Amino acid sequence: MTEATELPAIIDLQNVAVGYDGVDILNNVQIALQSGSFTFITGRSGAGKTTLLSMLYLVKKPSKGILKVFGQNVNFSNRDTLAEMRQRIGVVFQDFRLLENMSVYDNIALPLRVRGMPEKEIYRRVVELLQWVELHKSIYKQCSTLSGGEKQRVAIARAVINRPDILFADEPTGSVDSEIANKLMRLFVELNKVGTTVIIATHNEQLTSTYNYQRIDLHNGTAKLYPALQRI
Question: Residue 3: inside a domain, yes or no?
Fold first, then answer.
């Protein structure tokens, strides 16, 4: 009988501090997240959820300590290496960041066009994904005409069209009702089931209690990882 082996850490923070304008919001963070895990980041408004996320998806570098993503030390990674790492990451921003004057199709296709993928394959992938997020009937609608929940689903589709190894989402249910929030969460759960590491920043306590996953809680400049609750 062989012992189960633990999956490698896809994100590893060692005594990390991060902040803005020389002021650290978080200090001495020591957390490792395994490949294929699902993690909530929680904390009060202003606790540093968005700041932590921006460091993890490689927009910011830590002011102290070591951050490893995909096993590589971010502090010592050059621009080309960071660009390659970002191609393996999907991000759903709190404010969507869609190109409002473009269609749903063109917004989602954009990351694949940047990679130079043939248009025939782009069309196949986009249509398949739009069916998955239940927006196939809106494929050619201009994004400015969509509801908040529809825009959120477009943003998610755009973030996952590259089939990322890690998906980050910043308050993905903050501007939608509970029905849409649960629908979006089911999408994240399905992504996680096929191997994507999912990390969601949220202040929605109902969400974190309904979906029992591990949680990084931010409080007074600290970050602590809590395991998923064992339920009978």
Answer: no
Q: Are residues 116 and 215 in the same domain?
A: no
Strand partners, 159: none
Based on its alpha-carbon atoms, the radius of gyration of the chain, rounded to whole angstroms, reads 18
The per-residue pLDDT for range 79-92, each reduced to its tens digit, is: 999 999 998 999 99
Please provide the distance, in angstroms rounded to a whole number, between the alpha carbons at the two ends of the chain. 27
Q: Tell me how many domains the chain contains.
A: 2
Task: Annotate 197-213 with b (16+ C-beta within 10 A) or e (fewer).
Answer: bbbbbbbbeebbeebeb
DSSP 8-state class, residue 15: E
Give 42-83 pLDDT, tens digit per residue.
999 889 999 999 999 999 999 999 999 999 999 999 999 999
Range of the domain at 134: 99-152
